[in-house]
Amino acid sequence: MVKPKIFVLTHNYPINEKDMSGIFIKNIQDDLADDFDFTVCPIRFGSTMHKLYKNPLKWPKLLAYYLNGVPAAEKEFAKGKFDLIWAHWWLPPGIIAARLVRKHKCPLMVTCHGTDAFMLRDLPILRPLADYVFNSAKTVNVVSKYMATITTRNSVVANMPYNQEIFNYQGEAKDDHYIIAPSALIKRKNLDILIMAIKDIPELRLKIFGSGILKDELVALIGDSKNIELHPSIDQKTLAAEYKKAGAIILPSINEGFGLTLVEGAASGCFPLATIDGGMVEIIEQTGGINFPHDPSGNEIKKALHKYLDALPADRQSIADRARVYSREHIIPRFTQILHHTMK
């Protein structure tokens, strides 16, 4: 049987095995590979969407991206006969995808992952451009219930799944005082606030795994603290091994569309803590962790961590079991159904 061919447009995709940027896109394609044949066209933006979000002076880069990206996408699209275009993020790849769709009459699915949706919420001037993309798509997929409220009312909720074969809990002994924070080292992740909070709770030990533009700033902030470590990004299997040791996972970020690392940690028996923001709210509700308000002083993080310590011992098996609703065994059949429906 010939598998349907899907043309994938994205600005964020791993360059090599060590690159974790956009790894969730590669992972879901691998999970769907038995039913679909994917061709990825990564048109890189040369900046982060968060920088664009916070600095309108960088918006002209969108025009340059579009002018350079359309010919590149057209060239790759012409190499095959495709049954569907799948654009990850409505901005910026979705704009190029909408042009391809209108020219070639190929059905389109757009997936909003986070920052693109929050830009639409906070910058209403972008709504006409977003509606152009959404109206060109047969399906708009969002990765959390919250995101459905800020994109389009016709959106379909299906999150990026975690791999239960890698991330799981099998009763391993854990260090309740080891807090893990896998994260990009960028401003909206609020790792500086987390570091200052952990400094005031010496009985806890924090390990941050990640890379990004704030590395030097965070290293300086950590200074000679004995209970905080900053490590480079690690591959998923190594991360899974760390999850099995850690007592809790924390995401103090804002503008988080879903929070896949929070789910991976919970599935591995880590007690989840996260900001009351975006898709992380529903993850905490599902897994039974602790949400805390965003607070630049760090006091709310400290309160949440003390609450976690007071709640020990945690029912880690229950946390892991409840996280399984986000596993690929549950989510991949959903995506298979959505993709087939979009191609009809």
What is the first-to-last residue Cα distance? 17 Å
Largest sheet: spatial strand order: 2-1-3-4-5-6
Reading the helices and strands in chain order gives: EHEHHEHEHHEHEEHEHEHEHEHEHHH
Low-confidence stretches: none
Please summarize the sheet with the most strands.
Answer: 6 strands, parallel
Q: How many extended strands? A: 12
What's the CATH class of the largest domain, please?
Alpha Beta
CATH architecture of the largest domain: 3-Layer(aba) Sandwich
The fraction of residues in strands falls at: 15-25%
Q: Characterize the overall form.
A: globular
Helix segment count? 15
Describe this structure in words.
- It is a single chain.
- The radius of gyration is 20 Å and the shape is globular.
- It has helices at 23-32, 49-54, 60-77, 93-104, 115-122, 127-136, 145-148, 191-199, 215-222, 236-245, 260-267, 280-287, 299-311, 316-323, 328-343, and strands at residues 5-10, 37-42, 84-88, 108-112, 139-142, 156-157, 175-182, 205-209, 228-231, 246-251, 271-275, 290-292.
- The longest helix is centred in the N-terminal third of the chain and has 18 residues, at 60-77.
- α3 (60-77) crosses α4 (93-104), α4 (93-104) packs across α6 (127-136) and α11 crosses α14.
- β3, α4 (93-104) and β4 form a beta-alpha-beta unit.
- 43% of the residues lie in helices and 17% in strands.
- It folds into two domains: 5-161 and 327-343, 3-Layer(aba) Sandwich (Rossmann fold), CATH 3.40.50; 175-325, Rossmann fold (3-Layer(aba) Sandwich), CATH 3.40.50.
